[in-house]
Amino acid sequence: MKRKHNFKELQIWQKGRALVKDIYQLTSKFPKSELYGLVSQMRRASISIPSNIAEGSGRKTSKEFSRFLEIAYSSALELETQLYLSFDLTFISESTLDEYLNKIDEVQKMISSFDSKILADNI
């Protein structure tokens, strides 16, 4: 089956993939007691971003792809909340929080922009 988009060539997928690596490295420093709590949640939310972009790229219509982009965007919002909680619980510093919020913001903007483009172009 031929896809309209090769997800591996999409910058939003590449940025999402890099974010997963960053989140894994960050959460590896969290308390062991959080392994099945916040660490697991953050890792799953980050993985959901590039995974949904990849899955959506295989859909037949732009509208279907857009739905998966919405899910990826929502996962980024979830991850953003979890970073704030990590800061509140003093697992990360304010500078680390800001650094990761900027990374997530960049991914969110890219997803939103790409979603608008595929719907406008109907590609």
UniProtKB/TrEMBL annotation:
Write down the InterPro entries for this protein, in alphabetical order.
23S_rRNA-intervening_sequence, 23S_rRNA_IVS_sf
Q: Which residues cross the membrane?
A: none
- One of its Pfam families is 23S_rRNA_IVP
Q: What residue range is the signal peptide?
A: none
The record's annotation in Gene3D superfamilies points to:
23S rRNA-intervening sequence
Residue ranges the record marks as coiled coil: none
Please give the name of this protein.
Answer: Four helix bundle protein
| The species this protein was found in | Carboxylicivirga marina
